[in-house]
Amino acid sequence: MRHTAILLMGPTASGKTDLAISLCRRFPCDLISVDSALVYRGMNIGTAKPDAKSLSRAPHRLIDFLDPEDSYSAGDFVRDASREMGKIFAAGRIPLLVGGTMMYFRALTRGIAVLPPADDGVRREIDAEAAERGWPAMHATLAEVDPDTASRIEPNDRQRIQRALEVYRLSGRPLSGLQRESRPLRDDIRWLRIGLVIEPRSVLHERIERRLEKMLECGFLDEMRRLYARPGLGPDCPAMRSVGYRQFWQHLDGEISLDEARDRALFATRQLAKRQITWLRSEDDIFLVDPLEAAAIDAISGFLAQSL
After folding, report:
1. Where in the chain are all domains bearing CATH 1.10.20.140?
2. Distance between start and end Cα atoms, the chain
3. For the chain, which has fewer Cβ within 10 Å, the N-terminal or C-terminal residue?
4. How far apart are CA 291 and CA 282, in angstroms?
């Protein structure tokens, strides 16, 4: 039996949550969050986590179940999302997966490559080279051996550059090639892809800036102080590498001023949105819509009515 699931994908600050809740009123859908930061407890303001009222109207699965000290991978997400989709299918309803962590969407629908495990020695070698040459130079090195992966990574994205180079040095093969050989965990699901794209880009940038200001007004810095005080939580924890949290951690560490943390967070969020849009536009068979258009919800509903 072939099932159908809906993927609602979009950049940060594009209004995904509100649209998803509206769709749940029109279709028999249950929501699954696809967000690498929303899985963590205590990270509410800086992640723009849906508030209690929204969650009561449309409960989200895979939200608020991990401590920030814990790690969570794309493989973990695929396992958990597959389990939750099974429950939703068994209840005769439709999974609606909503979020902006494009790597999770791709891992779920296309599979996860079998990659060599992390090697501390190789990582130390890469970090030592980066200390001498800088991460943009390491990005250029990656582009020589794996141009496809390098094209999807920003020149200063230390974590992803390091991992891609590590995979190449351990396996002798580019990460992109290994990823193309991956297979999805489930092949009995038909995916209906909906992508939210706001044009012109300056409008999205304005929304991102307004949202950051609102987060700060609502106590994001106090949230950061509580996280900063937690034993065992540090800047290298995956949760604290999230956009916004990383920059304000640097401020609490005394590395940068509050204004500089705000500016860096704003820049990083806009760069994240750019990467998310690039991922969206690379997807096959996707229904793209501007969520700010008055008829957006009707356009999406019409697409789903014809496809389900």
Report:
1. 120-180
2. 15
3. N
4. 19
Of 96, 109, 95, give the one whose Cα is nearest residue 184. Answer: 109
pLDDT score recorded for residue 284: 85
Span(s) in the chain for CATH 3.40.50.300 = 3-112+182-307
What's the predicted TM-score (pTM) here?
Answer: 0.83
pLDDT at 187: 79
Task: Write out the CATH class of domain 120-180.
Answer: mainly alpha
Beta bridge partners of 33: 98
Residue 17's Cβ-side half-sphere holds a number of Cα atoms within 13 Å equal to 21
* Of 104, 98, 264, 63, nearest in space to 196 by CA: 98
CATH 3.40.50.300, domain 3-112+182-307, yes or no: yes
- What is the rounded CA–CA span in Å between residue 156 and residue 255? 18
Residues 6+ apart with CB under 8 A from 132: none
User: Rounded to 5 degrees, what are φ and ψ at 211?
Assistant: -65, -40
Q: Which segments of the chain have a pLDDT < 70?
A: 1
